[in-house]
Each structure stands twice: as C-alpha cells, then as structure tokens.
Design goal:
The chain is α+β, with helices and mostly antiparallel strands. Helices cover about 25% and strands about 20% of the residues.
C-alpha cells in the first residue's frame, strides 16, 4: 500500500475516494520481476502470498449534497510534500501524492506547543479540547463515579430550550475543496481511559506523538428520540430527564456494580440469565434499564450474560473521571494516528516501514520447516529469523479452514449533530438497539471539527456493527432513523428535524480476530499471524495480540519498555562551547557513540529531535 496502517488507516477526503475506487476495481498486483524463482534453492519451497486484498467488500458511496460541478475542483491548502522517515532517521522517498502525506507531521508540531490550536482550525474551535496523556493525569477516585468532572454545577440544556438556527448550506464542492481537513478512519474506535492501549501509550512514551480529545457525551436512542445519558454523579443529579426516585435507583445500582464481586448473593441466582433479565429484577424503570444496557454496559440484550454485563458496567465506571467526564478518549486527526505513532518510535530506533513494497512469497526450508526469507515484488530476497504476517496477506490455500466474520461500516458527512446543544464541539457515542431480535446493535460515533477529522460546520459520523448482510443493508435503516437523505420520500418536517447527510460510504471489512493459529494450513513455526481490526469499541484485542506474539518470539524481553531519555543520548551541536565549534561542526571529526551507548538509535533520535 502507499499509506500507513493497513485497515487501521485514516484518509483525507480525496484519499478516501481513491481508496473506494481501488477497492471497487480490485486489480491484481503486476509482476515487475519474472525470474524470481532463481532465488529459490533446491532444498527450499515457497508459500505464495495473496496478490489481492480481499478484506474489503461491498463498497458503495453516495452523494446527497448539492453537486455543483465538483469534478474539476481540487483540494485547497495543499501542503508541501513531506518525507517519510525510515531507519536511523534518514529521509526516505518523498511521498508521491498530497493525500499520502501523513497527518502525523502536523500532530507533532502541535504537540510540541501544548495548548496551541492547529492552524487548520479557528482557536475557538479547539481551545481546551486537547488532553495530554500521562500516568499522573488521574481524576477522582473511580468510586466517586466521576465526581470531579468539569462544570459540575452547570445543568445540561434541554434540546427544546435551544433556539433553532438556520444551518449553513454545505455543498459537495466545498467538501472536496476542504478535503484535507478530513481525516476519515477505516475503523471506528475509542480509547478507554483505563484500557490496555492507554497504559501502553504511557509506558512506551508513544503518547508524546499524539494528542487526544475527550468524548464529551454518551447518548441513547429510545422511542425514536436521541437523549443524553447521565453516567457520572454530576450528570445524574443535574439530569432533567430523570425523576428524583430514578436518580437514587441509578446511583444505588452503579455503586453496586463497582464492587459487585463483594456481594455475590445479589447476582449468583442470575448467572445463567442474560444481563437484561437481571436488570429487570433490580427495581429499575424501563428507561434506566435501557440506559444501563445499551449506553453504559453497551452489551447485547440477548447474548450477554449477567457476569459479562456487570464486568462491562464496572469497566465503564472505573474509566470515569481519569481524563474527563466520560470514559473515552479520541486521538486528534483520527484513529489512524495510533499506528503512525508506534511506527515513528520504531523508526527512531532503527525500524524501517516500507510503503509501496509488495511481498511475493515466504521461503521455507524443507528440512527444518522454518521460514528463512521472503521474496519481494522486485525480485529481492530478504532473510530474517521471525516473520509476522497480517491475515490478509495469506492466500486462500493457507486459509482453507478459516471461517471469517465481517464488520459492517458506514461513514457519513453530515451538516448537524444528532443532538443539538449550546456547544457545537461535541464528541458523542450512541448505541442504537436492534429492531429485530437477534440482530446486532449499531455503535454510532459522531466527531466534530475540533477533533481535526472534518471541516468546520460539518460532522463525521461512523457507524459499526457485526455483519449479518451487506453493510448498506445492515446500517441504512439506522441512518434513515437518525438523518434525512434528501430523498423524495421524506417530508419537509422530517428534513427540518433531522440532520442532513451530505455524503456516505458503506463497506464490509473482514474481522479476522479470534482465529486460532492452527486453523492456517502449512505455516512454519516462526511465522506469526496477526489479525485486522475487530468490531469491539476498544483496542484491547490488538494490544493483547501484539504482546502475545512478542512474548512467543522473545520470552525474556520486556514488551514495549520505556525508551531511553533522548537527553541522555543526543549530541546537540548548539550546546558545544564556541571555541570547539570548528571541530565539532565537522562531520569527519565528530565522535560517534557506539551501538551499545546509543541503544541502537542515536542518529535516529537526532532526526526525531529535528522533526
């Protein structure tokens, strides 16, 4: 691929249009080297890798906005071409197109000056939204249920009290022209504030390469309306949609969930029941049961056991108050920043990330059965001791016995929020329960422009659920409930009540998580398979998988240890005394640290400092 992150990537709007076209055409990789078989010895055999990416299917995109001759419009504000940094901090090949330029560069510039708004957004749009992740950035005791959340005394505005304003008319041409302001994720996830990924970002110091914004509200869809869910103590007591009796009921149940293991007599009779059945026995009103099941625990009504529901509720509550008033964080510039952050730290210490570099096959020794090398698209043989292969690279012959699940995805660009309040800069998560029994709930994440994922006066909406049919068949009914699509069937009143969709894309993505390694046929013992994204809201599956593979290869090593302090290994010419400048500025006479002294990355750390 010519972009970072595989199916975890983020794109500008034009970059996503190119990705859509590429996946609708599904062209094979052309061979540049025909005589590669001469690289294979007599005692070796090959395992061919797939030439097609079959992880994306049923891609359909639609434009509902005013299409005023946008064919010849180009993205405005094109940035200069930036280099890709590879091993030892050396500059790699400059990227070939504007949409390939990773947004990490601008994220780094912003992170060096905390609190300074990005040039691409007005200061008012992003002021106070960034969150710096540190191990000391703790809020109140989780047992306080987010008691330290900001603006505790400020009651939320009821939607009916907000004076309606005439929304600005956004055209498709404007979306194309402002395409660089979009960072559209292929996979939609949030980070639990006490999840495995946050802990790893802090421990490995990768968090310094990114900034985050709090998810500001949890929403619910009930009786055809979108409502805000009170989840912290402050939210509960400031809520106008709950009676005083309901507030006491809710607080009593949430307090129980925090230490439910200390009170087994409360739930042990319902261990074989569903969580929904257990909630119905707890003297909770129907609205409270709905909030807890779909917006706090976020579990299935039919498939989730009582213990699983209690665990999910406790996880939600324990994450409250660490970085804000909800349990979730979202990385500025999109989820696709996270893979780039890890790649950047890898490059600092000598790792190389090769774009536009297809791999043809694995080379296996017949006697030992171990993989010795790979042969790439250009006829080059590269040897190694260990090989980690993403599932999509494996050919059909290797995956004969593998049964894959699918994820249904939709991405919308809309003109208004699903729930208007006095603040336009909201990051919201909404769970829409299924209409028919047995169907999955749909997770909706709505992002505002201060997340640096969309242009001003628009919202980026991600919809995700496990697939039962094509993505459009699974998700379009939910889209029609929440938004209007400028179709003739919709009445004028519906159009005024609902936010409008300017553009939409639907696609199915393969979910290869949870597959046992023995399901793959004929893989050598030193070849490890990692999956693509899963359908869960968090990132725990990917972190656990990475650590498992690492420990199998290096059982005595620490997984993602804290990197050395750059100040201890950087030779900064500016700090050298003036009388020594003539000598120190000479590349030939400047002493270089040994590999042991530099921990394998002295030059690369210099490059990182320059960035």
């Amino acid at each position: 691929r010519n972009y970072y992150g595989g199916n975890w990537a983020s794109f500008s709007f034009s970059g996503l249009l190119s990705w859509i076209k590429e996946n609708q055409q599904k062209t094979d990789i052309s061979d540049e080297c025909e005589d590669w078989r001469k690289l294979i010895l007599e005692n070796e055999e090959v395992i061919s890798l797939s030439k097609k990416d079959r992880t994306i299917q049923h891609v359909e995109d639609f434009c509902f906005g005013d299409q005023d001759s946008a064919e010849d419009v180009e993205e405005a504000g094109a940035l200069p071409k930036l280099p890709v940094f590879g091993a030892s901090g050396a500059e790699g090949v400059a990227q070939e197109s504007e949409e390939e330029c990773p947004p990490m560069e601008s994220a780094l510039l912003e992170s060096q000056e905390p609190g300074k708004a990005a040039d691409t957004e007005p200061a008012s749009a992003v002021e106070g939204n960034e969150t710096e992740i540190t191990s000391q950035n703790e809020g109140s005791d989780p047992s306080a249920l987010g008691e330290s959340a900001p603006e505790l005394g400020k009651p939320e505005a009821a939607p009916s009290e907000i004076s309606p304003q005439e929304p600005k008319k956004i055209t498709y041409t404007q979306v194309v022209r402002e395409g660089r302001r979009f960072n559209i994720d292929l996979v939609s996830k949030l980070l639990y504030s006490r999840g495995l990924l946050i802990d790893l970002l802090i421990k490995s110091n990768v968090s310094r390469y990114a900034e985050f914004k709090n998810a500001t509200r949890i929403l619910a869809f009930r009786e055809g309306k979108v409502e805000q869910v009170p989840c912290s103590r402050a939210d509960v007591f400031n809520s106008r949609q709950l009676t005083m009796v309901e507030k006491r009921m809710l607080m009593k149940f949430l307090t129980f969930c925090l230490d439910y293991e200390q009170h087994p007599e409360e739930y042990q009779d319902y261990e074989n029941s569903t969580f929904a059945q257990f909630l119905s026995t707890r003297k909770l009103t129907p609205s409270l049961q709905h909030f807890i099941l779909h917006s706090i625990a976020m579990v299935s009504e039919t498939d989730c056991s009582t213990l699983e529901g209690l665990q999910a509720t406790r996880k939600f509550l324990q994450c409250l108050g660490r970085y804000g008033n909800t349990p979730f964080l979202f990385p500025l510039y999109g989820q696709g920043e996270i893979p780039q952050c890890f790649c950047r730290l890898c490059a600092v210490f000598g790792g190389i990330y090769c774009l536009r570099h297809p791999v043809r096959c694995l080379v296996v020794d017949k006697e030992s059965g171990r993989c010795k090398a790979i042969v790439d698209h250009f006829g080059q043989r590269i040897s190694a001791n260990y090989f980690i292969v993403e599932d999509s690279y494996l050919s059909e012959s290797v995956c004969t016995n593998v049964s894959y699940r699918q994820i249904s995805r939709a991405v919308l660009i809309t003109d208004r929020s699903v729930l208007d309040t006095d603040s336009e800069q909201q990051v919201s998560i909404l769970t829409v329960p299924p209409v028919d029994p047995g169907k999955p709930a749909v997770c909706v994440i709505e992002l505002c422009s201060s997340t640096m994922t969309c242009m001003k006066d628009t919202y980026l909406v991600h919809l995700t659920c496990p697939s039962t049919k094509t993505a459009r068949e699974d998700l379009e009914p939910v889209v029609q409930k929440l938004f209007h699509l400028n179709t003739e069937k919709e009445t004028e009143n519906e159009e005024l009540e609902k936010p409008g969709v300017l553009w939409a894309v639907y696609f199915n993505m393969r979910d290869s998580s949870g597959i046992d390694r023995n399901s793959y046929e004929g893989l050598p013992s030193n070849v490890y398979v990692c999956s693509g994204p899963d359908s869960a809201l968090g990132n725990d599956c990917a972190v656990k998988q990475a650590e498992t593979i690492f420990r199998e290869m290096f059982p005595t090593e620490e997984f993602c240890p804290p990197p050395p302090n750059p100040e201890d290994i950087i030779y900064d010419e500016d700090e050298i005394a003036p009388e020594e400048s003539e000598v120190s500025n000479s590349a030939e006479t400047k002493p270089e640290p040994s590999a042991e002294e530099s921990s394998g990355g002295s030059t690369a750390v210099k490059k990182e400092d320059n960035e």
